[in-house]
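Field log, afternoon session.

UNIT: design team B
ACTIVITY: writing a sequence onto a fixed backbone
BACKBONE:
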C-alpha cells in the first residue's frame, strides 16, 4: 500500500484468425494498457502493418454518441456493457442504423417545429399580459397611460371573411386580437399590439379592410376580463406544448429497447476497435504489447490461451528489465476504498513515479489532524459530516460525478475529525458544554485557564503545531531517501539538500533552536556541538559542486575555464545552497503555525458571535448564534480544508514527491473513451 502496484509487460503474438477472440478476452479482463509495438525489438518490423477494420473507429463513436444523445432526451443513461454482451457479438450495420436514426430525428423535428411556433406565441402573449398587468386596461374606456405603456390598443371592424388573413398576418408579431361581436358580415375586434410595430400593424390592417371605430361601452363591457382571456389562452398553449413534448418522448420510448441494445453493441465494437488500433499484423499473425499489474498475469495467460486455443506466444518482462518496450511504466494505486478521497488529493497534485512511495496512506491522518486542529468543534463537525453524507447518498450511483462523490466523502471525514478534536478541546457550537479531554482551546484564546498544566497559553499551542510540522518534514525527508535508494542515486542521497546532509543540518538546526529557547535565547550550544551539527555538514556539502564539475565538465576540449573562476563558482553555488537549506527549512517549519492561527481565528469568531448575541436577547440572540455558526462552518471549514491541503502539498510533498508518473489506464468494459 505504501508503494504503487508492481507492473509487468506482456509481448504477445497470436494468429490472425484468433484476433477477434483474443481482443474480446483482453476487453473482458480489462487490465492491459497497450504500448506501441514500434518500441519492441522485432527482427522484421517492416513486415508488420496496422490492423485493418471493416468499420472505422470514428464512425462507431459518432453513431454511439448520436444514440446516447437521443436516450438522454428521455432521461436514460446507458449502462456500461457487461461480460455477457461479448457473447455471440454481431456486427452492427451502421448504414441501416443511421437511416433508422435519421427517420426518428425527422419525426422528432416535425414536432419540434410545431413546438417552436407555439413557444413564440406563448412569449408573445406573456409580453402582452405583463404589460396589461403593470399598466392596467379599462375595457369600458380602453385607456392606457401613454407615457409609460409600450402597448397600442385599437378597436375596429373588418369583413368576417378576412379574420383568418388577420390571424396569419399577426402570427409572427407580439399582438393579440379578440372578437367583441358581429354585425352582419362584419366583426368588431379589440386589437392589442406593441407601439414599436405600429407601421407593420397598419399595413396588415389595411390589407384586411380594417376600419377604426369607437365602440359603445355596452359592447366593451360585455367582454370578459382581458387578463382572464390571456391566462386561458396561455394555459391552452402550455398544455399543447406539454402534449407535444410527450409526443416527442413517446417517439423515443418506442425505440428505447432497440436504442439501448444498439448503444451496447456500438460500445463493445468501439472498445474492441480501440484495442485493435494497438495491434500490428502480418499476413498470418497479430502482435501487441502492454502493461498490466503483476497480480493479473496468471489470469490473463489463462484467458489468452483459452481464446486462442493455445496458439499464442506470450513473453513477459518485469518493470526493471532492460528488454521492456516503453521506458514509461504506468502507475496503479494499491489503496483500499476508504482512502479514495485522499488518493484524489494526491492525484490532483500529481501521480507518483512508478516504484516510488505513494503518500496516500500518510496524507489521510496528516490532513485530518491539520483540519481537526483548525476546525475543532463537535457540533459544527456533525453538521459538516451530515452535509457530506447527503452528498454521498445523492452521488452514490453517478459515475459521471465520481470526483464530487469522493469530495463528499472527504467532507464526511473532515466532519469526523472536527468532532474528535472538538471533544479533545471542549467546543460544542462554540460552547464549553462538556469538559475537554485534552485542553480548553477557547479558554486559552479568551484568556482563561486551559485545564491542562502542560498547555496553558497560545505559545504552547503554537509549539504543538511546530512539533507536528517538524515530524511531517522529517517524514518527507525519509521518503525522499527511500526513493533515492530505490533508484540508486547515491551521490544525491548524500549531497542533495533533501538528502542526508540536508536532513543532518535540519536536525542540527532544530536542536540549536530548542537549546536557545530552553536557555531563554541567552546561550548557544558549545562550539564543538555547533561544529558537529551545522559546520561539518555544511563543509561536506561543498564537495557536491567539485564532484559535479569533474563528472560533467572536466576534460571537455571545447572549454578551458579559469581555475580561479571555477573555484569562485563553487563557492557561490555552495553559499546559495546553504541559504536555500536554511531559509527553506525554516519557512517550511514556521508555515505550520498557520494551523494554530486558523484554530485561533475559529475560536475568535465564535467568541465574537457570542458577544454579539449577549448584546441582544430572545429571537435576535438565537438568530445571531445560528447565522454565526453557519458562517463559521462555511468560511472556516473552507479555509481549514484549503490550508491543510496546502501544507501537505508544499511542505510535505515537495520533499520527495515529483508527480511525473502516468496513471495506468487499461481498456475495459467500463472505460471512458
Amino acid at each position: 500500500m505504501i508503494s504503487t502496484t508492481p507492473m509487468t509487460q506482456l509481448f504477445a503474438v497470436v494468429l490472425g484468425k484468433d484476433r477477434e477472440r483474443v481482443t474480446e478476452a483482453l476487453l473482458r479482463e480489462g487490465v492491459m494498457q497497450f504500448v506501441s509495438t514500434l518500441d519492441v525489438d522485432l527482427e522484421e518490423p517492416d513486415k508488420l502493418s496496422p490492423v485493418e477494420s471493416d468499420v472505422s473507429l470514428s464512425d462507431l463513436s459518432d453513431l454511439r454518441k448520436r444514440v446516447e444523445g437521443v436516450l438522454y432526451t428521455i432521461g436514460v443513461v446507458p449502462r456500461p456493457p457487461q461480460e455477457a454482451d461479448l457473447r455471440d457479438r454481431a456486427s452492427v450495420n451502421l448504414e441501416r442504423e443511421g437511416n433508422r436514426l435519421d427517420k426518428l430525428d425527422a419525426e422528432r423535428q416535425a414536432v419540434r417545429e410545431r413546438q417552436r411556433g407555439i413557444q413564440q406565441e406563448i412569449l408573445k402573449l406573456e409580453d402582452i399580459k405583463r404589460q396589461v398587468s403593470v399598466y392596467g386596461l379599462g375595457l369600458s374606456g380602453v385607456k392606457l397611460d401613454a407615457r409609460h405603456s409600450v402597448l397600442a390598443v385599437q378597436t375596429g371592424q373588418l369583413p368576417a371573411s378576412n379574420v383568418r388573413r388577420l390571424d396569419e398576418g399577426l402570427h409572427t408579431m407580439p399582438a393579440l386580437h379578440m372578437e367583441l361581436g358581429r354585425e352582419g358580415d362584419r366583426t368588431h375586434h379589440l386589437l392589442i399590439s406593441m407601439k414599436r410595430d405600429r407601421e407593420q400593424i397598419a399595413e396588415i390592417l389595411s390589407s384586411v379592410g380594417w376600419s377604426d371605430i369607437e365602440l359603445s361601452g355596452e359592447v366593451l363591457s360585455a367582454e370578459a376580463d382581458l387578463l382572464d382571456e390571456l391566462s386561458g389562452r396561455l394555459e391552452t398553449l402550455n398544455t399543447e406544448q406539454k402534449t407535444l413534448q410527450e409526443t416527442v418522448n413517446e417517439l423515443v420510448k418506442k425505440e428505447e429497447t432497440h436504442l439501448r441494445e444498439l448503444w451496447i453493441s456500438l460500445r463493445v465494437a468501439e472498445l474492441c476497435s480501440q484495442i485493435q488500433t494497438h495491434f500490428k499484423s502480418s499476413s498470418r499473425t497479430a502482435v501487441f504489447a502492454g502493461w498490466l499489474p503483476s497480480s493479473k498475469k496468471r489470469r490473463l495467460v489463462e484467458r489468452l490461451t483459452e481464446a486462442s486455443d493455445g496458439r499464442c506466444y506470450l513473453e513477459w518482462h518485469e518493470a526493471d528489465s532492460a528488454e521492456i518496450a516503453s521506458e514509461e511504466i504506468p502507475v496503479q494505486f494499491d489503496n483500499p476504498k476508504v482512502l479514495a478521497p485522499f488518493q484524489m488529493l494526491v492525484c490532483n497534485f500529481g501521480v507518483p513515479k512508478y516504484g516510488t512511495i505513494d503518500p496516500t496512506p500518510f496524507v489521510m491522518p496528516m490532513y485530518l489532524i491539520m483540519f481537526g486542529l483548525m476546525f475543532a468543534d463537535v457540533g459544527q463537525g456533525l453538521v459538516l459530516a451530515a452535509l457530506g453524507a447527503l452528498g454521498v447518498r445523492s452521488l452514490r450511483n453517478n459515475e459521471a460525478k465520481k470526483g464530487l462523490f469522493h469530495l463528499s466523502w472527504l467532507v464526511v471525514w473532515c466532519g469526523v475529525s472536527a468532532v474528535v478534536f472538538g471533544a479533545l478541546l471542549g467546543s460544542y457550537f462554540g460552547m464549553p458544554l462538556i469538559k475537554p479531554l485534552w485542553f480548553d482551546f477557547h479558554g486559552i484564546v479568551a484568556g482563561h485557564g486551559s485545564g491542562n498544566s502542560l498547555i496553558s497559553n497560545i505559545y504552547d499551542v503554537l509549539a504543538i503545531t511546530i512539533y507536528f510540522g517538524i515530524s511531517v518534514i522529517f517524514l518527507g525527508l525519509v521518503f525522499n531517501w527511500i526513493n533515492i535508494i530505490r533508484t540508486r542515486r547515491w551521490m544525491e542521497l548524500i549531497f542533495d539538500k533533501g538528502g542526508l546532509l540536508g536532513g543532518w543540518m535540519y536536525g542540527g538546526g532544530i536542536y540549536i533552536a530548542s537549546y536557545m529557547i530552553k536557555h531563554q535565547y541567552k546561550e548557544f550550544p558549545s562550539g564543538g556541538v555547533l561544529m558537529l551539527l551545522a559546520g561539518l555538514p555544511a563543509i561536506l556539502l561543498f564537495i557536491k559542486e567539485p564532484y559535479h564539475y569533474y563528472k560533467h565538465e572536466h576534460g571537455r576540449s571545447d572549454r578551458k575555464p579559469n581555475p580561479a573562476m571555477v573555484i569562485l563558482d563553487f563557492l557561490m553555488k555552495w553559499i546559495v545552497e546553504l541559504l536555500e537549506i536554511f531559509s527553506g527549512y525554516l519557512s517550511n517549519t514556521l508555515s505550520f503555525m498557520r494551523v494554530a492561527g486558523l484554530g485561533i481565528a475559529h475560536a475568535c469568531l465564535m467568541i465574537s458571535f457570542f458577544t454579539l448575541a449577549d448584546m441582544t436577547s430572545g429571537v435576535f440572540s438565537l438568530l445571531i448564534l445560528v447565522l454565526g455558526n453557519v458562517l463559521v462552518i462555511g468560511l472556516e471549514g473552507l479555509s481549514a480544508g484549503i490550508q491543510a491541503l496546502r501544507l501537505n502539498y508544499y511542505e510535505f510533498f515537495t520533499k520527495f514527491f515529483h508527480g511525473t508518473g502516468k496513471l495506468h489506464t487499461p481498456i475495459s468494459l467500463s472505460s471512458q473513451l
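LOG NOTE: Residues 57 and 274 are 7 Å apart (CA to CA).
NEXT ACTIVITY: expression trials, pending approval
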